[in-house]
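Notes from hallway chat w/ T.B., transcribed later so I don't forget. T.B. wanted the structure written out for a chain they're using in a teaching module, and asked if we could keep both sequence and structure tokens in one place. Agreed to drop them here.
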Amino acid sequence: MKLSVVIVSHNQCGQLRKSLSALTRAVKNLDAEIILIDNSSEDNTSAMALKEFPEVRLMTLSPFRRYTQAGNQGLSMVKGEFVLLLNPDVVVKPKSIEQALAFMTDRQSAGGLNIRMVDEAGNYLQESKKVLPRTWVAFLKLTGLFRQFQKSRFTDYLSASYKDEFDIAETDVLNNCFMLTRYAVLQQIGLFDERFSDYGATIDFSYRMRLVGFKNYYFPKTYLIQMADKRVSRFNWQHLKNFYLAMFIFAAKYLFSLPALHVKPVQKLYPAYELKG
């Protein structure tokens, strides 16, 4: 199988319907599977998927799981050579996935890929080319862990990292709106570290990829549309808690508790310990 697509959705039935409609058209000429993780939704998500998209492999979780746990449920089911983690609030264009796969096939050093994102009005979204927040840059410099994030700089966070919208570029950190990787990468580095809540998991995942020699890319020759959604305020207490807790876990993992990574097959990956939120 060429491609496995994993979507984690929680109470996003309306957006998910549009996303799946576009996705099924985009993969119709590919040997692909779509895996939907309904993370304890209360808005008829599972019933809609079963009725309107019977080709989708559906798993319903109860009770609600944090993103890393739900995502790993889907990633543990994949069969494809390539694995695409896709948000339920995005609409992919008809040839977007084929173009992204072609790019990854041509560059064997590429471990992960994001593509250009626009909003429903066609405006470029800066998070397409994700960089580390300045707080994380300072933290990683102080801890000596910054050497694997050489694409991030203090000034990049607000300006330089968002220029060259249409240029292919190597990046430090992937975002999970459209995160294309290889099954071989998952076998080598494992799945998301479930010690992280929502924030920090993709930073850790990207870091592990770079440690074993893979590169991450921003590919703007195609694009997706991110539908309007309610954004979480950066001053929300839960967001701040997850933000700084992720830095603590990251430091504890690489400076103290887990100084080395152990390669395990994806089917045998288990978190070293659980951190209750």
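Follow-up for T.B.: The two ends are 37 Å apart (CA to CA). Might be a good example for the class.
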